[in-house]
Specification:
single chain; 143 residues; Trna Endonuclease, Chain: A, domain 1; five-stranded mixed beta sheet; four-stranded antiparallel beta sheet; globular
């Protein structure tokens, strides 16, 4: 039987592997090192419909902060059930979550982009559905 985490992480990773410029270098705690420059932290929910909510405990926050000190670029992939992956750069995550335990919520209407909010704020812009497959180049530009 396929573990749920492997199932959902696999869906996110396959999208990245379709980009010829990326390669998976190593699996870490709840994430993957991509092309030596990017750490991708993944969270998933099995919930089928919007909104999707993701909780972050202090251990996960500390892990992300540690990765931020080790890698130039960090991205968060919020796997929203079977809908898609909402991709965020670390600066976006920090602006809506901070460095304390909390939550991030992603929601979207049919054929629209993701609206994203966290326990301390809301992103002013929406995140396009197709951003995840280009997260490496997006993260380099926005972080």
């Amino acid at each position: 039987m396929i573990d749920k985490m492997q199932y959902y992480h696999g869906a996110a990773i396959v999208s990245l592997l379709e980009n010829d410029n990326l390669s998976i270098k190593k699996k870490g705690n709840s994430g993957y090192i991509i092309s030596e420059n990017l750490f991708v932290f993944l969270k998933y929910t099995t919930k089928a419909r919007t909104p999707w909510r993701f909780n972050f405990d202090q251990e996960e926050i500390d892990r992300c902060l540690k990765m931020a000190s080790e890698y130039k670029n960090i991205a968060l992939g919020l796997i929203c059930g079977g809908d898609g992956v909402c991709g965020l750069g670390w600066s976006d995550v920090f602006s809506i979550l901070g460095d304390k335990p909390g939550w991030i919520s992603a929601q979207r209407k049919h054929n629209e982009s993701y609206s994203v909010a966290g326990s301390i704020g809301r992103l002013k812009r929406k995140i396009p559905v197709g951003r995840w497959s280009n997260i490496f180049s997006e993260t380099l530009i926005h972080n």
